[in-house]
Amino acid sequence: DNGYVLSAGQCVPLGSCGCVYNGRYYKPSEEFWADENCRSRCRCDPSLGTVVCQETSCKSNERCVIVNGAHRCKATTYSTCIGTGDPHYTTFDGKKYDFQGTCIYQFAALCSEDPTLTPFNVKVENNNRGSKAVSFTKTVTLEVYNVTISMSQDHPRKIQVDGVFVDLPFSHQHKFKAYISGVHGFIKTDFDLRVSFDWYSYARVIIPNTYANGVCGLCGNANQDPSDDLTM
Length: 232
Description:
The protein is an all-beta fold.
């Protein structure tokens, strides 16, 4: 048809055509490292119909590695946030505090406008159990790549993806995987975000330190300063 071309085996509008670079196909607007040292960052520009590259490098706290056959920058250090018990929180920066709210809260999410960071949002729902004086984590939900993954006390040892229970282990387009290890359910993304829940009260988020000072929520901002973790 007029105005259409064959791209990755499908007829697509000319402006939606992908690119071929060094014998490999890339989707429109897809970004990738073109060299083994992560010093040339490229993008398939659909408006030009070609790959455009610029010199850059991994951040100071990253190293260049191969993941699923492609080069990428990977963090060398990580920060952990925990919510456990009724519930006691330990932020990414190590600040400990208690919070007894019974609602849905943002546990940790990307709040930076850094275009190199993948957006995500981890939410927790707390509820009362026996006493209204204390609350416990009931549900942990991760929103990433336009997909919602959740683990709930109501459904022990089960994980839902967009509201549907999935067979475990489960993977989604090499973007994330969900699985059980011991008493915990785990979600791990391709950018090394890790979320876990024991389906009772123990929730944990681990972020690569490429997200340092770029997150917000109950877990704080991961800027290595615990004194500002409870500020908005």
